[in-house]
Design brief:
Blueprint: H1 3-13, H2 16-32, H3 41-65, H4 67-70, H5 80-83, H6 90-110, H7 113-134, H8 141-145, H9 147-160, H10 166-189, H11 191-197, H12 202-206, H13 208-227, H14 236-258, H15 262-289
Helix pairs in contact: 2-3, 2-9, 2-10, 2-15, 3-6, 3-7, 3-9, 6-7, 7-9, 9-10, 10-13, 10-15, 13-14, 14-15
């Protein structure tokens, strides 16, 4: 394997794309709170990187623990720990835990203890509560696991003001409601693989058709919740993102509910990414214009 290939292999362990998305939600949490200008550039950078590194640590722990079941699914069997390209050793586990410790310590030192606590809670929710506790026990695993994204929002908001206000709490609620339809759409597309691996994702337990209807109903609740920050001072850019992104996501989940198949499930999955991106962009534009 080339040097570049080794680096790509190691990077894949940490689920960096997911980490980047979680980091952006933390930045949105910081930006949505009035008074965000009081946070120095260094504090904002440390907060963003702390969330990113903590998320990467949790993602790596997930792959470390799930290596055996990852081998049972075509979409995950090539992952580094599952394929044996990297050893499931005490050394790797120490690196994963060490990254989390550094991330939380940095947030505590340069930002504040409340923000650091939320950084820690986000990582532990995904790594311990979701991966170890719920993933193989209940179809509602990702509902609780979705709190990881909410904690990232709260970490960003706490960097501005440890006493959380309504805008931060409502954006955290939006992230909590966003995760299930996002992940369940992907689970519907890969239902047969989850069934073969013995993972009780919602479509495996209730069937793709019913799961698709639940995804659509959940998305309705998500879109309604995404409009609530407008009553507490969110700006026009956020409102535009909430309306346009929400309408697009609803259109795709409605199509999924009418025809629960891989193509409509993947369209719903990508629409969820677009909707969240529109919300984050709206928050950042409003903050820049504030």
């Amino acid at each position: 394997m080339t040097q570049g290939g080794r680096w790509r292999l190691v990077a894949s362990v940490f689920k960096l794309r997911i980490g980047l998305l979680i980091m952006l939600t933390a930045v949105a949490g910081l930006a949505i709170v009035p008074g965000g200008a009081s946070v120095t550039a260094l504090q904002a950078l440390v907060l963003a990187l702390s969330v990113f590194v903590a998320s990467a640590s949790a993602g790596a722990f997930n792959q470390f623990v799930e290596a055996d079941s990852d081998r049972l699914m075509p979409r995950t069997r090539a992952r580094a720990f599952a394929s044996g390209a990297l050893p499931r050793s005490a050394g790797w586990l120490s690196i994963i835990v060490g990254l989390l410790v550094v991330a939380v310590a940095a947030a505590a030192w340069w930002v504040n203890a409340v923000a650091a606590t939320f950084v820690l809670l986000g990582a532990l929710t995904y790594a311990v509560v979701y991966t170890l506790g719920l993933k193989r026990r209940t179809a509602w695993n990702i509902v609780v696991g979705g709190l990881a994204g909410s904690f990232a929002v709260l970490a960003g908001a706490a960097a501005v003001n440890p006493q959380l206000g309504p805008q931060a709490l409502l954006l955290a609620l939006v992230l909590f409601l966003w995760t299930p339809p996002h992940f369940w759409s992907l689970a519907i597309a890969n239902e047969a693989q989850y069934a073969a691996a013995g993972v009780p994702m919602l479509p495996v337990v209730v069937g793709p058709a019913r799961a698709a209807r639940i995804v659509h109903a959940n998305t309705v609740a998500l879109v309604v919740a995404s409009l609530l920050p407008l009553a507490f001072g969110a700006g026009w850019a956020y409102g535009a993102g909430a309306v346009i992104g929400g309408a697009y996501f609803l259109r795709k989940t409605h199509a999924l509910a009418r025809a629960p198949q891989r193509s409509t499930a993947m369209a719903s999955f990508f629409a969820s990414m677009l909707q969240l991106s529109a919300l984050i962009a709206g928050v950042l534009i409003d903050a820049a214009l504030r």
